[in-house]
Amino acid sequence: MKIQDIVLTPVAFADPPLLNVMGVHEPFALRGVVQLVCDDGVVGLGESYGDLAFLDQVRQVIPELKGHDVFDLPGLQRKIAAVLGKAVFSDQHGLTGGFSNRKTIATVYSLFEVACLDAQGHFLGRPVVDLLGGKSRDAVDFSAYLFYKYGAHLGAEEDAWGEVTTPETLVGAARTMIDRYGFKSIKVKGGVFEPDQEIAGIRALAEAFPGLPLRIDPNAGWKVDTAIRVARELDGVLEYLEDPTPGIEGMAQVAAQANMPLATNMCVVSFDDIEPAFRQRAVGVVLSDHHFWGGLRDTQALSKTAECFGVGLSMHSNSHLGISLAAMVHVAAATPHLTYACDTHWPWKTTDVIAPGSLAFVDGAVAVPDKPGLGVELDPDALARAHEDYVRCGQTKRDDVTYMRRFVGSFEPNTARW
Ligand code: GKR
Ligand code: MG
């Protein structure tokens, strides 16, 4: 089944002012949506980053992929690698670690791999999970993903979540999210306030939600000694401690002193990182992310590799829409070793580009769609609106730092500040 045409649509959707080590989320998050129009009118969908650096690479490969057979994934990868050559794009979409040529190719390939798998599923009348080997679970668990946040964007009214800057408001946001979605574990984005304040936030959650697994992720915002201290103070409280400090060596030093596993989506972000990180026992959990690990099948390869080394698997997220959520659900369902509840930014958005109804959170989990392909349909009007928002907002990359400086003029990103 051949690709006849490829439509790439950059989109933007409203995003609250969520805080992290780089600053604060801008009013819109960007994504790129691809439609592979194939023989017999079959359309395969894919979703990934929407920053210009990424879209430019995708635009370069598009002409080479027309006429390609969607069942020939190795050929697809070869064509993309040939066009991109030695290209390396740097992260303009948010805190996913270092970049390399391998990761660049894997990221561009992933967008098309997912769309090809969607098209294959439509052609065969089978859900993507079946093309990945079949379901290990009927529904995929997700974690509540809490952020400290400002109450409003610059010049805007307070949003429905309000300001979250204290342990009390953090617990309030967790309660709202858990009431709405039924999540059974909680992740907190840290690295924003002094570590003691963030420790107090975790303790408040532990008290308010006894028994719920908790995680904190300061995106490498702490020095090794601080990370070791936090690990000691939160011993017995955290399920895992995510990216407490920069780099594989630093993580290994913390891991040697911490009782809970360390997790990462920053120091193990490509197959090249596995050998040094696993040899040094720097991490106990890798957060997979098909968007930059080379698609759904390479996520499964990562899983097998991690399993062989006794390393657990969870899943990372960036701000995303429904096509990505569907892909996350299919691959997680087809990956038995992925036993931790996955991250998702889903609760923070208010619009989408897919028709409602195919993905729903029940008890913190999303049932694996059983319709052909990814099991989601584009809503053409919603896509058009999201594209208009993209054009209107004028953002071409994610830049939390510059936006933060409009709130706090002297702001500097937290690269292990504490
Ligand atoms: O959305 O601000 C954010 C997150 O900090 C995101 O950029 C990270 O990549 O969620 C991610 C993480 O787990 O590090
Ligand atoms: Mg992380």
Automatic annotation (TrEMBL):
It holds the Pfam family MR_MLE_C. Its EC number is 4.2.1.40. InterPro entries: DgoD-like, Enolase-like_C_sf, Enolase-like_N, Enolase_C-like, GlucD-like, Mandelate_racemase_C. Coiled coil: none annotated. Keywords: Lyase, Magnesium, Metal-binding. Residues 167-261 form the Mandelate racemase/muconate lactonizing enzyme C-terminal domain. It catalyses: D-glucarate = 5-dehydro-4-deoxy-D-glucarate + H2O. It is an enzyme of class 4 (lyase). The active site is at K189, H316. Transmembrane segments: none annotated. One of its GO terms (molecular function) is glucarate dehydratase activity. Its cofactor is Mg(2+). Pathway: Carbohydrate acid metabolism; D-glucarate degradation; 2,5-dioxopentanoate from D-glucarate: step 1/2. The keyword Magnesium applies. Belongs to the mandelate racemase/muconate lactonizing enzyme family. GlucD subfamily. This is glucarate dehydratase. It comes from Amycolatopsis xylanica.
